[in-house]
Amino acid sequence: MALAVEFTKRQREIIAIVKREQPISGAKIAAHLNLTRPTLRNDLSILTMTGMLDAKPKVGYFYAGQQVANLSFEALYEAPIATIMLAPVLIKPTTTVQDAVTNLFMNDVGSLYVADEQQQLLGVISRKDLLRSTINGGDLRQNYSSLIMTRMPNVVTTTPNVRILDAGYLLKEHQVDSLPVLAEGTQKVVGKLTKTRLMAYFVEQGLKFEQERL
Amino acid sequence: MALAVEFTKRQREIIAIVKREQPISGAKIAAHLNLTRPTLRNDLSILTMTGMLDAKPKVGYFYAGQQVANLSFEALYEAPIATIMLAPVLIKPTTTVQDAVTNLFMNDVGSLYVADEQQQLLGVISRKDLLRSTINGGDLRQNYSSLIMTRMPNVVTTTPNVRILDAGYLLKEHQVDSLPVLAEGTQKVVGKLTKTRLMAYFVEQGLKFEQERL
């Protein structure tokens, strides 16, 4: 079905409501959206004319668009994280807390990885670690990053071949903002996977799927 | 297919590699994982015996598990965010920055919503706002939250009926950590949707799907 129509946010909400509760009256759809029936008239006309909804007198609205819309589990969850990981922001163990905060804002990231000259991971500093450190006082120009970082081997890490689903499980279970990605069998940082990146990935895949379907 | 087997992380990685590159030799699988061929022998036996993989002499391994594994787009992306939103942590505009930081740590959240007595949203304070404020100095016991918050109407908000996909789009496009959920047509805060919650939701759905399939 090739549609040239871009549905509005409200129209997409109506479709979702009808899918869940069909058959459903126009009045009930309006109630769900805290809107009046006349306000919805135009949207319901558009959705009926484009074939997304079907209206039966005295019964209500039905969903009439493509009935089955399936995503591939393999494509969405089983790709290796190497395909979506980001470049890490590395700092030295001797970087001051003050410079770490500047670095965090400059790069607009949530966490910094502390590494040695060979890019081997020593530890991780999160926004929360920096906030704790700044509120506790002390001279931020004197304190080293290595003093406030979460230190290896206490950092949860992963490797490039791990499935997106398994890396997501680690982020969720350990309640961390990001996972340093280390080359298999080494301590060398080759990437990072953040909650933000993973969330954006799932949303992008959903949008792409929806667009291809229309 | 009802399997009593729990595959290890490495075995799941092998399955994913075979799915992508079949037919593939044992040596190539080992190379992907930076492991030696003998190390993998046991895993490959288990995967072949359980019927997940099929081995053809001189050709390589094939994936022989359930070939089609589809997720429902509607179930994953089109449910209203009311089904997954969290309870918001509300503070007053007169809460000091110091108390706001304490509140953030106590509740272990990434952002606080500033609301009036009627729970109407006035603004939002993120971990980043607090970090900026604490590093800039000044008396944290004197400064009010209302001075450092992102103020309405500059806050990106949403409503309970919005689809998970559309709320995810807002989080991604506006690069915010959370969306206050306001009752339709009002300023009243009824929930929040965070990047963390959304990421965890997608991961949970993937794990659930995989478990039900096995």
From TrEMBL, chains A, B:
Keywords: CBS domain, DNA-binding, Transcription, Transcription regulation. One of its GO terms (molecular function) is DNA binding. CDD domains: CBS_pair_CcpN. SUPFAM superfamilies: CBS-domain pair, Winged helix' DNA-binding domain. It comes from the Bacteria. Pfam families: CBS, HTH_11. The keyword Hydrolase does not apply. This is Transcriptional repressor CcpN.
